[in-house]
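Can anyone check this?
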Amino acid sequence: MSHLRASDRNRDQVADILAEALSTGQLSHEEYSERLDRLYQAKTVGELDVLTEDLQVERQRPAAGPVSYVPSTSTEPDNIVAVFGGADRRGRWRVRRRTKALAVFGGVRFDMTDAEFEAKEVEITINAIFGGAEIIVPEGAEVRCQGVGIFGGFDVHNSPNVDPSAPVIVIKGMALFGGVSGRVRRHRDH
């Protein structure tokens, strides 16, 4: 993760840590000023980490990739159907406020790692009948699993470290003789 390009959000988080260190007496005004100059010259997350590694402050790890929110005026759900086949959403794609997926003797895969979200909270309804679905959510996302498995499995877990700025993904539906699974993709999994 240290080789990834730093975002403005990463820099803001490190600036907050430096300000806290100044206020607690860990940094002099001169040291604070020097580190602030280096902060705005830093190009990678690793260069930002060096600025705070010797400080005793409560810190949240800067997120490696900011989440994109692209609002839309449309209220129509995205409908995805995989019957005796498959459907795959990955890369830079738009996650609508509501997405409905049906997998009958087929499979669907949603990789939201690089997706743009229409809203802070999105709802995905998956019905897998003798089929399956795999959901890959970005690190920091909050996942609310409200699906049910009937002679099948509905196994989608929350991210271990929820980031308040990350999306909330509500997953609903049913797996009948099928399965719906989900996992968090950490940025080094790419």
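Reply from J.R.: I decoded it. The chain has three helices and 14 strands.
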